[in-house]
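Quality-control log, excerpt.
Job 1 of 2 completed; input and output follow.
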Amino acid sequence: MLYALTMLAALAADAEPERDRLRDRYERQTQRCEERLIEAEGRWVRVCADVQGNEPRHTERKQRRAVERLIGRRARHSHAQARLEGLGRPETTVEVVFATNRVPDDKQLFGARDQGRLSWGVATVRIPADHPAGALERDLDIVSVQPLREAAFQAHVAAASGVDQGLLVYVHGYNNSFPYAVRRLAQVSHDLQLPVVPVLFSWPSHGGTWMSMAKYTYDENAAARSSAPFAEVLGSLLEEQTAPVVLMAHSLGSRVVSEAMSDLAQRDGLRPLDELVLAAPDIDATVYAQRFAPVALGSADRVTLYCAADDRALKLSRQVHGGYDRLGSCREDSLDSLQHPRLEVVDASQLYVDLIDHDKVAGSPRLLSDLRQVLVGAPIHADERGLVPQGPRYELPP
């Protein structure tokens, strides 16, 4: 025992100089990013002010290039700062309670087929040391999975929520395997730095097949088949749990959620959701406005929509669906029909995360910070959220 303690102390001592070197390097990188960001901001201001004496087309091109440069610089600075702030954070674990209608699978724990019934359990996920907000590192991994019966699932949720913790119920989107969805929810719930219990509903998306049209069609059908099982899960949580419930749907998961909420609207006596968050929803904008928005507003105290015009996955989905707008695409005509005091639209078009830009809320430290403000009840016009009103939506400034 003494030998083991001595070895641990020696490893800790060896790690400290390395962490100091990393801190010094990250501080220099953050400083360089900040200097370039200030330079890009100044250039953007000058271009916006220099509108007289130039051809409109020439001015528009200069403004567009200045905005693109500013967006890129802001993204680099945000990630550098998150890496610096994460340095020194200890390794920890997050328990993700889950329900799924996937069939059990030896390789992926649960596979891409619908088993026709629900399974429950709790997965423990390791958050590595020095974890930066928004990152989904390779060593942020599942360390254990414990199957549960339904009653034990409800008991575990009740015990975890305790007195002051709410439930963050998450329904993932297209192309998400079961392990990926578990890891992503663990990362989001950890990075929010709020007392929430992460509860995952994982439907049988195929996963690992980005840009495959055949698998997209498969996932659309799997999502349609999963709305009734999710309605069963959500209804039981609302009936049996007393903690506040926030429901968050990403991408194609918005269809699972919307259909399930329509089913539950027919059930008497269910309490409303405290918050419904739609992140990059891949659902027809007109269909949502006509059919699902009234249900959502009647079943949740507030609805928050995160959208982005540069979301390449939704651009592709729009093409696949005959050119009809996706709700998450932030197109002006579609948003006009959704105006309501309790439906708030956050436009993240001027926030770069990656080449696809479809998972901004989970992958961006800036949007994770805004989501945190949503969950603590801050209104969309609150100063701490730093959003700019633009017609029917609020924009993140470039």
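Job 2 of 2 completed; input and output follow.
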Amino acid sequence: MDNGSSAAPPAYPTSLGTSDAESISLLGRDLANDLMGNVGFGELAFWLVTQQRPSPGQVRVFEAVLVALADHGFTPTAIAARLTYLSAPDSLQGALAAGLLGGGSRFLGVTEDCGQFLATVLEEHSDARPNDLDDDAAWDALALTAVKQARDSGRIIPGLGHPVHKEQDPRTPRLLTIADEEGLRGPHLRLFEAIGRVHVDVLGRRLPLNGAGVCGAALADLGLPLDMLRGFALLARTAGLIGQLAEETRRPVANSIYLSVDRHATPVPPATD
């Protein structure tokens, strides 16, 4: 009786990591001999997602973005990680996860939201997209249309404005310079720069270009998948959160934060309709 033992086993194709008793393969290369010591982590992260090895210029812009997003002090994500570590010092992974779960529309998510917004504008207005990347007047006209449409529909423009840097986010000019030096200041960055120039004419006030938004534009210009952009922000912030937790072990503040809130909690009557 045939019990099916001769049937071919199922196949699960992957271009990423596989291993056997003697070796580990990653991206079609020998991990130990071809990649370790020869490929930086940022380069590898880019390569894993795109399946194409990035150029040195792409690596420089990509890693500049990771550095720009790694840490910003006692943000809600960092506080969440530290407080979770206070509660469960035996669960480093839980503390990291707590910090990463806070990466949403107000923190970290702006990177993806901005890249998505710019890509949508470029797609919906492909007929108005300047053929010359250096044609600032044409970019300004397209940006003006985008800002007006956002205002008329009641939407905010992701990456416009910053809670701390009211005049200029210091990351913005540096990222633009690096992208320009590497010949990677593409349409998403050009459009975002133009939004920075023209939005005051529509909104009536000047707001800085958020560094996280510029990061999203830069990643989009690198050709990275738009629905993966938040993942790169989380990758960067993981390093920052590890640093936050390491500092928590050396110079703890989480208990003080907890006690400050707890001891200053003020009872009030329940809200009523």
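Post-run check on job 2. The CA atoms of residues 57 and 183 lie 8 Å apart.
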